[in-house]
Amino acid sequence: MTSWIKTLSAVTFTAAGLGLFAGTALAQGTPRLADRQQQRVDHRQDRQSDRITQGAASGQLTVREQARLEKQQRHINRLERHTEADGQVTAKEALRMEKAQDHASHKIYRQKHDAQQRGG
């Protein structure tokens, strides 16, 4: 009976160890919500910056419009740094970032498609 208890203990210990190892590997393999949110925000910021640059190059944006849109992007970048400063992004913070980026995106669109054009 003693060997049966030892065998059971060894199997239990091994199973627990494998479970812990698998859980750690799984946690490392899947990005956290905060990491995915950060990647999404960064990618979107890059796209919006590209849209501003393209609008300025094509003459769709005046110098003043470009400056205002770039200032808005800097504000969003500061908001992102502040949001991620504590290492956790709450749902409320993520929503705030999403709304700020939505607002910026609409503003870029409106400025690129208004009647004003860069002279030159």
Secondary structure: elements and pairs:
Elements: H1 2-29, H2 33-58, H3 63-84, H4 91-112
Helix pairs in contact: 2-3, 2-4, 3-4
Helical stretch tally: 4
Judged by helices, strands and strand pairing, the structural class is mainly alpha
Order of helices and strands: HHHH
**Percent helix:** over 70%
Low-confidence runs:
none
Distance between the termini: 94 Å
What are its keywords?
mainly alpha, 4 helices
Model description:
- It is a single chain.
- With 120 residues, the protein is an all-alpha fold.
- It has 4 helices and no strands.
- Helix 2 runs antiparallel to helix 3, helix 2 packs parallel to helix 4 and helix 3 packs antiparallel against helix 4.
- The longest helix is centred in the N-terminal third of the chain and has 28 residues.
- It is rod-shaped.
- The chain starts with a helix and ends in an 8-residue tail after the last helix.
- The model has no long low-confidence stretch (mean pLDDT 83).
What is the compact description of this entry?
The chain is an all-alpha fold and 120 residues long. It has helices spanning 2-29, 33-58, 63-84, 91-112.
